[in-house]
Amino acid sequence: MKAKFLLLLAGFLVTIGAATAQTTGTKPTIQRHPLLAGGPMLGHAGLRYASVWVQTTGPAQLCLEYQLESKAVDSSREPWISSVASKSGTLCQEVTPGPAYTALFEMDQLHEGATYRYQILASSDDASESEEIENSQVVASGTFKTQPHFVHRYPAPDFTLAIGSCAYVNDPAYDRPSASYGGQYQVFESLASEKPDAMIWLGDNVYFREGDWESLLGMIHRYRHLRSLPELQRLLTTCPHYAVWDDHDFGPNDATGSWPLKRESLEAFKLFWTNPSYGMPEFEGISTAFRVRDVDVFLVDNRYHRTHHALADSCDRRMLGQAQINWLVEALKYSRAPFKLVVCGSQVLNSEAVHETFANYPCEQAYLLQRLADEKIHNLVFLTGDRHHSEQAQRTVGGVVFHEITSSPLTSGVHNQVDEENNRYRVPGSLGKTRGYATLRFSGPTKKRSMLIRFHNQDGKIYYESTINSLNP
User: Are 213 and 249 in contact (CB under 8 A)?
Assistant: First the structure.
């Protein structure tokens, strides 16, 4: 379908609650242009860089216009910025026939710590360059923010991260002939109401069905199915989004690095997420690192290099692989952040070798934790998903205390038998058996930061909270 035809079709706004197979009876009031299949979604944002992702229903000519709305509070400290950074701009892309019809708009040389207003416009595919803006229609609009540049200038600001995993959206045509596994999608509305400064998806962010993982096109279909969910739209435009994967958005259940279509899965992941980078020269995958305010975040890949946990020789089994561990330890050693967040699709600290926890790889688990202890990597918090329950864990190795926050599930089924597990490192009272998410609130003086952990149910109600204080050894 040509973009010109789509634009004629898109002369009015329609309510996006038409996908009745995905909804739970709620009637979101968010309206969207029919040219949009998913998004817009705010992607990775730095000091002078920001990105906006969008997916269309077919070929299109898109332009994103942005305009400075408000400068940072401290912009007067560096008046030279106003003559260097961009106050406005326009980026245009042709969304060509392809497997996903996605576009990523990347803006740089922006003001630090500023708010920009943007709008995405679409023009007919036969318009000249000069006519693209004049004869276009607005298909989406919103705001994005760059991160504040506070280092050597003023104290680190307070901010909030949101985390969650296991997002199953029902699709009766391809689901098992049993009770619906997904539900209570209002969790995404509750998340948006928190107004987090960033959202980190902890894996199983979609659930590939049997036909999906057979091809790249099948995987794209499943991502698109989630991204079109009405209840998700406000969250996508609220804050930057980052992600790791687990088995259900990597391939079949419990898939390992032996899965033949892992490169196709990586391609699909890159089409729908906007992490700053993917892998390193020494190893492929989704690993990367970035900073949010004064916290360093490390995304690790628990699938691409994984071997099966039932292989005979336990010390030949691996979840991360030597090259990735070397990178992670060195990157953590380099970090001077008051908190270092390591995001992984599988639980790391759990003492029990159940399902797909790191304890199924005892040699590699012990090796990683001992190396981190030997390097005295303090203030390290693992953020994990997968387990269909939530909990906090704390484990000491060689005098160094490690923390773990598991948040799961967002919309998939709940693991009610978790009480039978004897995770020796679980913090008493932290177990949650409900759909929901977690928020991490960072605050306090620069050298005495604290992280307030809160577990929320699907309606946003807090049912557990605790605080971790940073150490300065």
Answer: no
Architecture of domain 159-469: 4-Layer Sandwich (3.60)
Residues contacting 274, CB < 8 A, separation 6+: 41, 43, 44, 51, 53, 104, 240, 241, 242
Distance (Å, whole) CA 32 – CA 38: 9
Token pair, residue 125, equals 């595919």
Tens of pLDDT, residue by residue over 1-13, are 344 433 333 333 3
pTM of the model: 0.92
Q: What is the pLDDT of residues 52-80, one digit of tens each?
A: 999 999 999 999 999 999 876 655 455 44
Q: What is the signed CA dihedral for 386, 388, 389, 390, rounded to 10 degrees?
A: 40
What homologous superfamily is domain 3-145 in, according to CATH?
A: Immunoglobulins (2.60.40.10)
Looking from the CA of 211 toward its CB, the CA atoms found within 13 Å total 8
Q: Say if 3-145 and 159-469 have the same CATH topology.
A: no
Q: Residue 470: phi, psi to the nearest 5?
A: -70, 150
- Domain regions of the chain by residue span: 3-145, 159-469
β-pair partners for 94: 61
Contact 414, 408 (CB under 8 A): no
- Interior/surface letters 272-307, b for 16+ CB within 10 angstroms, e for the rest: bbbbbebbeeebbbbbbbbebbbbbbbbbbbbbbbb
Task: Assess contact for 120 and 63: CB atoms under 8 A.
Answer: yes
Contact of 228 with 18, CB cutoff 8 Å: no
What is the rounded end-to-end Cα distance, in angstroms, of the chain? Answer: 61
116, 155, 352, 403, 429 from 406: Cα distances, Å: 34, 30, 15, 10, 14
Q: How many CA atoms lie within 13 A of 198 on its CB side?
A: 25
Distance separating alpha carbons of residues 244 and 320, to the nearest angstrom? 13
pLDDT the model gives residue 131: 53
229-269 pLDDT tens trace:
999 999 999 999 999 999 999 999 999 999 999 999 999 99
Instruction: Collapse the DSSP code of 89 into the 3-class scheme (helix H, G, I; strand E, B; otherwise coil) and give the result.
Output: strand
Structure tokens of 2? 């040509």
Determine the 3-state secondary structure of 450 from DSSP.
strand
Name the residue type at position 120: I
Residue 20: the pLDDT is: 38
DSSP assigned state of 307:
-
Phi first, then psi: give them for residue 160, nearest 5 degrees.
-130, 135
Backbone angles phi, psi at 226, to 5 degrees: -70, -50
* Strand, coil or helix: 440: strand
Contact, 137 vs 7, CB < 8 A?
A: yes
Q: Distance (Å, rounded) from C-alpha 223 to C-alpha 266?
A: 13
